[in-house]
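Propose amino acids for all 243 sites.
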């Protein structure tokens, strides 16, 4: 089966799933399975990219606030509380109302509105690590702050960072899907799972497959990532108890 996600099919409009078109076709006769593959690439790029950026921002701010403390920690708490005052979706809508959405823009906007939870987790974990006896001994021994951070502290933070990243990917995919569904995310001729869902909403009564398969893909990826995050958290807790 060789189909292009952009090839129109005048004689294959709204065909149900078949051997020729495994997931059916849309209102323009385009193969939904191929469009799902291309749209999935965009959704995953946005999900992974924004989660990476949000995790990096959260790691920098969380560690900085925990180890500098004082005014820096106070400023951190105020900024995070200010961001969390507004629902994330409203922040996304407000930011995207001023810029033209693209893959890069969505990665940045979703990351900017989603780093706070990661930063709070890392800050709390950093406080706990800083209170460990051997970390205090290293500090008293005048060990370089850079060496202390990269050799001893960051490895201990990696489990929580991986958990935050995995959870962030699922959240970013859902955010992109919601924005594309509302017409503020990925725009044609590009495609994503959220945009495919948006295109299908007017045809629910006559073409059920157009909404079923993108919805299942979003659910399956999100569910898998949440379970991976739970497993990583379980392993991290097990190692901590063993230590």
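Proposal:
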């Amino acid at each position: 089966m060789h189909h292009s996600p952009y090839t129109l099919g005048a004689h294959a409009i709204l065909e149900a799933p078949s051997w020729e078109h495994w997931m059916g076709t849309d209102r323009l006769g385009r193969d939904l399975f191929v469009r799902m593959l291309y749209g999935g690439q965009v959704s995953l790029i946005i999900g992974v990219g924004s989660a990476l950026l949000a995790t990096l921002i959260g790691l920098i701010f969380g560690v900085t606030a925990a180890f500098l403390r004082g005014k820096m920690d106070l400023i951190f708490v105020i900024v995070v509380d200010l961001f969390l005052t507004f629902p994330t979706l409203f922040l996304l809508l407000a930011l995207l109302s001023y810029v033209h959405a693209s893959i890069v823009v969505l990665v940045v906007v979703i990351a900017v509105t989603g780093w706070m939870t990661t930063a709070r987790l890392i800050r709390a974990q950093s406080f706990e690590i800083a209170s460990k006896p051997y970390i205090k001994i290293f500090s008293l021994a005048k060990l370089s702050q850079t060496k202390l951070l990269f050799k001893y502290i960051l490895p201990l933070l990696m489990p929580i960072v991986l958990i935050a990243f995995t959870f962030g990917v699922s959240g970013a995919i859902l955010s992109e899907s919601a924005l594309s569904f509302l017409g503020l995310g990925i725009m044609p001729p590009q495609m994503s799972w959220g945009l495919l869902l948006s295109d299908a909403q007017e045809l629910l009564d006559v073409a059920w497959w157009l909404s079923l398969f993108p919805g299942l893909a979003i659910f399956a990826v999100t569910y898998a990532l949440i379970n991976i995050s739970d497993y990583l958290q379980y392993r991290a807790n097990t190692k901590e108890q063993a230590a």
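The mean pLDDT is 84. DSSP finds nine helices and no strands in the chain.
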